């Protein structure tokens, strides 16, 4: 059977030693697993947040009316009656000045400071804006319509770049873990070279010897990845309140249930990768040198 190598006899296991975490490799894998868990969770949270923010602003627009507007209510009513407009929110000049007062102080109430009035409105996806623009210009000729997506575009691009950077780091850390396993496998071969030569002399095949090393690599990788993933999960739980607050800013997007499942599977994926890489490294070394 394909998994027979997992059930080596006690005598076979004693050939390579039975202690766990004796060398540095399991601890290296634990550190890699911890880092991968944190970085992968960050990348997934960024992807979800960027997606929620995109959906929130893709159909939202703002009408900017210079120097306030005495006909703000009429403009809001015209937008509410426009076909395809789903919601309208008027922001009068006085409210804009109260908001600016937090940063400018009393200067925000100065008549010399021009402050526009705003009307935010949402439309159905794919709706043409030309009819709405004509309605707006008929009431406020100097008004300008801008898309919220254009304003947050740089932020979304930065979030997407950070997301792909996180996923790239996950791949690099996985490659580093695989390289550590290769070095450990070759080191184990050198350490047990005399034992391997004796076993070859009594008829053991390369595949049988590989199974012994493969089992030890798999168990050490599993223990290391589980320890690292547990530590990473603890850190993520401690940061959960901050992540929830950040997600609430854009509709509560943090980690979806499928993301949690993917994170829980990371230790098993890392273990499978380490086992496969270790198997290939041992087989290649045995065929080259023995």
Q: Could you characterize the architecture of this molecule?
A:
With 290 residues, the protein is α+β, with helices and mostly antiparallel strands. The chain has 2 domains: 4-54 and 153-289, no CATH class; 67-142, no CATH class. Helices cover 68% and strands 8% of the residues. It is built from 10 helices and 4 strands; from the N terminus they run H-H-E-H-E-H-E-H-E-H-H-H-H-H. The protein has helices at residues 10-15, 25-57, 72-80, 93-104, 130-139, 148-191, 193-201, 206-238, 240-248, 257-289, and strands spanning 60-65, 85-91, 117-123, 144-147. A 4-stranded antiparallel β-sheet has the order 2-3-1-4. Helix 2 (25-57) packs antiparallel against helix 10 (257-289), helix 6 packs parallel to helix 10 and helix 8 (206-238) runs antiparallel to helix 10 (257-289). The model is unreliable at 245-252 (pLDDT under 50).
